[in-house]
Amino acid sequence: MLIPFSVKNCFQLLCNHKVPAAGFKNTAKNGLILQSISNDIYQNLAVEDWIHDHINLDGKPILFFWRNSPSVVIGRHQNPWQECNLNQMREEGIKLARRKSGGGTVYHDMGNINLTFFTTKNKYDRMKNLKLIVQALNSVQPQLDVQATKRFDLILDGQYKISGTASKIGRTAAYHHCTLLCSTDGASLTSFLKSPYQGIKSNATASIPAVVKNLLEKDPTLTCEVLMNAVAESYATYHQIDSHINLINPTDETLFPGIKSKAKELQTWEWIYGKTPKFSVNTSFNVLYEQSCVEIKVFIDIKNGRIEMCNIEAPDHWLPLEVCDILCSGFIGSKFCPIETTLMTNMLLKTYPEDYELHSKWNILCEKMKGIM
Ligand SMILES: Nc1ncnc2c1ncn2[C@@H]1O[C@H](COP(=O)(O)OC(=O)CCCC[C@@H]2CCSS2)[C@@H](O)[C@H]1O
Fold first, then answer.
1. Does any domain span residue 2?
2. Pocket lined around ligand 1, Cβ cut-off 6 Å
3. Count: domains in the chain
4. Strands 32-36, 246-248: pairing kind
5. Which of 263, 283, 365, 366 could form a disulfide with 199 if both were Cys (CB 3.0 to 4.6 A apart)?
6. Same structural domain, 257 and 308
7. Can you give the pLDDT at residue 353?
8. BPL/LPL catalytic domain: which residues (predicted)?
């Protein structure tokens, strides 16, 4: 059952900053089950962040259910160019988010359930949480063969991944969050998580690709709603709490003071791209110009998402060295980003008015450069 009202009281009593340390009656008793009414990845990640930072979880763990509109979610220490098809995502309006937890890249849509288990650091136990999910799945479909692996994936029929795990451990609080594939679009998952970018060298965490499957494909009765209710039941039974799923609104500043600024920060270029560990790109492309094909080589170092070093090698007869150097200097310090490249190159071109051949070659080159960003 879903009740949006009572959560406010439970929640405010759980907040460290709202209630004196002693003497309050905790109406949340031994725990709380929440579900977001938002499908926005940034707002939902902000809820996780907010609960982690503000709630006293001692003796009062929280289970949080949330789903998102199509998004790709990378781990804290990952490189988005290495992990996904950014050009295709931009074209199709797929959001990219960087989460605070480590681990690999996953695809979310409304057919994917996210579950966050908040506890104190001492009570943090990923295997226990996964076993609870397995038990919930078996309670609705006893024939399902689902197992937790050593790397905290859940696998169906000994081979198909249905859940991936990541976690964040703070000073006193911790959370373990995982996905559960119910009816996600498999073609989108595969295509957005395939990087077309060549020649990237980096020490960023690499994802571990797996063959995935939806639970709904195995059993058409296993809808997201059925799955969430089943996990809520198992969680409530285990913690001896009410199995009500309390709806929360991640934009409610009275419930979560300061949450909007958290969501905003999670959407910034500086967080999503700028936090990418230092990397380099060593690649080349062929350009066709007046029936001849020329090879252009590029070497770029990127730090905090910005170009730190750039070297473009084109045949001198096609683009004079001096022009190449001006272009490279323009790239230094600019974001490794197609929009910024357009702005920067348009500005630079103004220094060569009326040289139409140069403009044309320069534009061809810049389009190719934008293609690797
Ligand atoms: N939604 C989803 N669920 C399960 N597996 C997925 C999903 N999307 C992609 N994949 C597969 O997992 C690998 C990456 O596996 P890898 O093990 O590298 O990474 C993970 O599993 C991370 C899980 C993060 C869970 C968080 C919970 C809330 S916000 S995101 C990818 O290449 C695909 O093959």
1. no
2. 73, 99, 103-108, 112, 114, 161, 163-166, 177-179, 181, 184, 189, 193, 207-210, 212
3. 2
4. parallel
5. 283
6. no
7. 76
8. 57-243
Q: Could you give the CA distance from residue 228 to residue 225 in angstroms, rounded to a whole number?
A: 5
CA of 162 to the centre of ligand 1 (A): 9
Q: Using one digit for the tens of pLDDT, what is the confidence trace for 299-309?
A: 999 999 999 99
* Virtual torsion, Cα 143, 148, 149, 152, nearest 10 deg: 150
68 CA from centroid of ligand 1 (Å):
14
Sheet holding 112-120, edge to edge: 165-169, 173-181, 112-120, 62-66, 32-36, 246-248
Question: Chain-centre distance of CA 303, in angstroms?
Answer: 20
Tell me the CA–centroid distance for residue 174 and ligand 1, in Å.
Answer: 20
Containing structural domain, residue 264: 7-272
* Residue minimizing CA distance to atom 26 of ligand 1: 178
Q: Can you give the CATH number for the domain in which 325 is found?
A: 3.30.390.50
Task: Identify the band that residue 340 occupies on the pLDDT scale cut at 50, 70 and 90.
Answer: very high
| C-alpha 316 to ligand 1 mean position (Å) | 46
Mutate to test the pocket of ligand 1, among 42, 100, 106, 109 (most ligand atoms within 8 A of CB): 106
Q: Is the pLDDT of residue 13 over 70?
A: no
Nearest-CA residue for atom 27 of ligand 1: 178
Report the distance separating Cα 204 and Cα 268, nearest Å.
20
pLDDT tens for each residue of 261-299: 999 999 999 999 999 999 999 999 999 888 889 999 999
- Distance (Å, whole) CA 132 – CA 231: 7
- Ligand 1 closest atom vs CA 193: 32
331 and 231 in one domain? no
Question: In this structure, what DSSP letter does residue 294 have?
Answer: E
Q: Do residues 329 and 198 both lie within one domain?
A: no
pLDDT in tens, 130-162: 999 999 999 999 999 999 999 999 999 999 999
Burial class of residue 305 in the structure, from the number of CB atoms within 10 Å of its CB (0-12 exposed, 13-18 middle, 19+ buried): buried
Q: How confident is the model at residue 7 (pLDDT cuts 50, 70, 90)?
A: low
Looking at ligand 1, which residue's alpha carbon is closest to its atom 2? 106
